[in-house]
């Protein structure tokens, strides 16, 4: 039946047009960047866990393993988090003095991720 075939084609075209419109809408609303943000936060969290958590509390709750190390969620109360960017880039973190001072090597992407993660947990 020619009529049914045409109707099916029309339905398919509408479906295609609708899904194309949804893709454009999603891009406009910034859903893709949101996924990128989640990836960056996850990277930042894993860096903090691997390098910092044996002393600092790195989450939204909980106490630091080393009582002298401030929980990360309160860091922004002391100074803007962006102050840490340069220190992290140079492999030092301000305030780490004496024999306990760990050395870090982070690239720009890791630093960005760590700072984004720190920003996400501040209280
Ligand atoms: C071996 C233990 C240890 C590790 C590992 C460690 N820290 Fe610390 N950190 C400390 C201690 C102790 C202090 C508090 C020092 C002080 O106030 O004199 C501190 C303080 C800080 C401060 C606050 C400095 C200030 O001026 O207020 C920041 C920021 C910081 N650490 C970031 C980090 C980051 C980021 C990591 C992981 C990449 C990390 N630390 C890993 C022990 C550690």
TrEMBL record:
It holds the Pfam family Cytochrom_C. Keywords: Heme, Iron, Metal-binding. The keyword Cell cycle does not apply. Residues 39-122 form the Cytochrome c domain. The keyword Isomerase does not apply. Gene3D superfamilies: Cytochrome c-like domain. It comes from the Bacteria. This is Cytochrome c domain-containing protein. It comes from Methylocystis iwaonis. The lineage of its organism: Bacteria, Pseudomonadati, Pseudomonadota, Alphaproteobacteria, Hyphomicrobiales.
């Amino acid at each position: 039946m020619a009529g049914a075939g045409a109707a099916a084609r029309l339905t398919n075209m509408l479906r295609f047009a609708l899904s194309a419109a949804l893709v454009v809408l999603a891009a406009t609303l910034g859903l893709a960047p949101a996924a990128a943000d989640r990836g960056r936060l996850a990277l930042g969290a894993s860096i903090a866990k691997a390098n910092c958590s044996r002393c600092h509390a790195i989450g939204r709750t909980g106490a630091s393993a080393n009582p002298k190390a401030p929980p990360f969620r309160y860091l922004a109360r002391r100074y803007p988090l962006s102050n840490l960017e340069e220190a992290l880039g140079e492999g030092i973190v301000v305030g780490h003095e004496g024999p306990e001072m760990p050395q870090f090597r982070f690239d720009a992407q890791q630093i960005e991720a760590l700072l984004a993660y720190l920003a996400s947990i501040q209280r």
